[in-house]
Amino acid sequence: MNSRKVVNLFLKTLALGGLVGLIVSFFVNVSGAYTENLQPFNFIGLLGVMLFFIGHGMLYSAVSQTGFFAYLYVHRLGLSIFRSFWPTVQIVLIAFVLFDLVYFPYKNAEGEVSIIWFILAALALFIYGWIIAKIKAKETKKHAFIPALFFMVVFTVVEWVPALRIGFVGVEFSLIMVLTLLACNTYQLLILHRLHNSPDKKEKIAK
């Protein structure tokens, strides 16, 4: 994959992050930010709020892209160190991260939030990651399933840690972040093999 494709991937993922961040903000309506500028109508204020959430989405997209390239390095490193045991190591790490996703936020909530909500959140992330991993395996090779699931679960949680640290006080921003991360991570994971397989424009002209 040449530098042109890398830049193209970066810009498209950045734009996707901004779009998802904006769309999700419409539904979570952080602290009534939109409502305050609709009643009465304030165009400048509304535009400022929209740009604010687009910027947040782009920021989360940058976090996602950093995590994605880190994943590519970790995956190669894991293969060289653990070799045939690498898939097993990834499964163990997935289980460990899902447990942490339930235990530590519940502990920090100090009983104010039922543990069932944390279990459902972890389960939803696992199911979504499973679906995306199945698609990745179907479009590439069967052995791509575990690495894809590993990336969607483990790296999404690692990228989401800053939002989790603020607890449920900032649940709206946590939702915006995790949904943006999931969208960007999904896009990068599913587009990677297409970028590798698609010929460059110069190569097409040469042919």
From TrEMBL:
Domain of life: Bacteria
Protein name (Swiss-Prot/TrEMBL): KinB-signaling pathway activation protein
Transmembrane is among the record's keywords: yes
Keyword annotations: Membrane, Transmembrane, Transmembrane helix
Biological processes per GO annotation: positive regulation of sporulation resulting in formation of a cellular spore
Membrane spanning residue stretches: 9-28, 40-63, 84-103, 115-132, 144-161, 173-192
Organism: Ornithinibacillus hominis
